[in-house]
Amino acid sequence: MAENKDISVLIVDDNDMTRETLRVILRHEVYNVVGEALDGDGALEMATRLKPDIILLDVVMPKVSGIEALRSIRMVMPDVMILMVTANKDQDTVSEAVKSGISGYIIKPFNAKKVLDTIQGVATKVRAARAQAAANQG
C-alpha cells in the first residue's frame, strides 16, 4: 500500500459526508490527501497553493460550480489530473466537463472499489508523466 504516498490528492465537495468518505477511502490506500475545499473558489486557491497530482472535484457546489472551477484550474495548471465527482449524469454537463478537460468521472453514489480503480488509473498516468519528464531531463 505504501506505493501510493507519492500521489497527492485534493478533495473538493460541499458535502461533509462525501469529503469524509473520500478521505477515508484514500487514506486507507495511503494516498496523500493534501487538502479539502468546500467550493470552486477554495478549489482554485488550494490547487494553486498545494499543487496536487489529482483533484477530486464535485460538479454542483455553491458560489462557483465544479465546471467553472475546472476551467479556472486548467488555465493555471493544465497538466493536473481532475476527476469530476457527481450524481449528475446530464449529457450537457458530462459533455461540458469533457470539453473542459476532465481526466475522468466518479459517479455518486460510489463505492470504495470504484473510487480506487478510477484513481489508480489516473495515478498510473501521473507516474508515467513523471518518468517521462525525468527521462527528458536526463
UniProtKB/TrEMBL annotation:
- What positions belong to coiled-coil segments? none
Protein's name according to its UniProt entry: Response regulator transcription factor
The record, for InterPro entries, names:
Bact_response_regulator, CheY-like_superfamily, NreC/VraR/RcsB-like_REC, Sig_transdc_resp-reg_receiver
Keyword Cytoplasm present in the record's keywords: the answer is: no
Q: Where is the Response regulatory domain?
A: 8-123
Enumerate the Gene Ontology biological process terms. phosphorelay signal transduction system
Say which species the protein is native to: Undibacterium nitidum
Write the lineage as a comma-separated list. Bacteria, Pseudomonadati, Pseudomonadota, Betaproteobacteria, Burkholderiales
SMART domains of this UniProt entry? Answer: REC (SM00448)
4-aspartylphosphate modification sites are D58
Superkingdom is Bacteria
Keywords attached to this entry: Phosphoprotein
